[in-house]
Amino acid sequence: MAFKDTMQILKEHLEQVDRDLIKVAKGNKAASQRVRTATLRLEKIGKAFRKESLTLEKKGKPKKASRRKLKSKFFSRKNTKRLKANR
Predict the structure, then answer these.
(1) pLDDT digits (tens, 9 = 90+) for 72-84
(2) Residue partners of 34: CB distance under 8 A and separation at least 6
(3) What's the domain range around 59?
């Protein structure tokens, strides 16, 4: 599952549990059963979310080359001689 899909599924389940919790407060026994089973599903989805978010954090964004590296790459002695010759 993709990270965004997992987030969407988690959000939908949380909304459903929230709606059922209101019914539980009114005394609806069937809603309390749905909440109990939904919490088991939420546990599984939560574990998947945690795993996917950790892998995304480890990957991270690609690092940008530092200015020094860029400068040395484009302005090496060889390139500066070539640039001066082309003037």
Answers:
(1) 544 555 555 555 5
(2) 16, 20
(3) 3-86
